[in-house]
């Protein structure tokens, strides 16, 4: 009886030991697979996913850099062009102011000049100021000469007006060239210029 009890107890102990061993083995295998999967996933994330992400970010950086480079270049070019136009505008305005200031001094010093042109000083000044908007390099002497020539020649040559002469000057032509382009011969243009110069000089006295 006693021996059967011992034998039965031994069998139970063996069964429990075997069950525990199986449980530990299964748990270890499960952990190993889980860790392996996690490790595999980790390697995939760290070994492949992360470099891919880094490459994407690098690509974005390069794209952004390229875009920003173009944008910066365009802004600089636009700024340069704008500043160029602005600088040119300021220079034109400065020249026009100087020419108008010279005209005011001329009219103050020679008040009879306007009378010989059959206009008053204010009208002559206003006409010159308007002409400077189109051609800031136009001198007051040229404007007066154009006015005088138009007055002297307009009756026989209706196309020779002050505006027509001023347009020729704005296009870089001399008064003589402009008069010839408007129909006068070279000799007629020279005579007309000399006459206008004499009359303007007399008005300064």
| Number of separate strands | 0
Topology order in helix (H) and strand (E) letters: HHHHHHH
- State the major sheet: none
* Helix/strand class: mainly alpha
Percent of residues in helices comes to over 70%
Beta-strand portion reads under 5%
Mean pLDDT: 74
Distance between the termini: 161 Å
Which stretches are poorly predicted, pLDDT < 50 over at least 5 residues? 1-10, 21-61
Any idea what the shape is?
globular
Global Rg: 50 Å
The number of helical segments is 7
Describe the structure.
The N terminus is likely disordered. The protein contains seven helices and no strands. With 205 residues, it is mainly α.
Protein topology:
Elements: H1 2-109, H2 112-116, H3 121-134, H4 140-153, H5 162-170, H6 175-181, H7 186-203
Helix pairs in contact: 1-3, 4-5, 4-7, 5-6, 6-7
Summarize the structure.
This protein has 205 residues and is an all-alpha fold. 85% of the residues lie in helices and 0% in strands.
Comma- or semicolon-separated keywords:
7 helices, 205 residues, disordered N terminus, mainly alpha
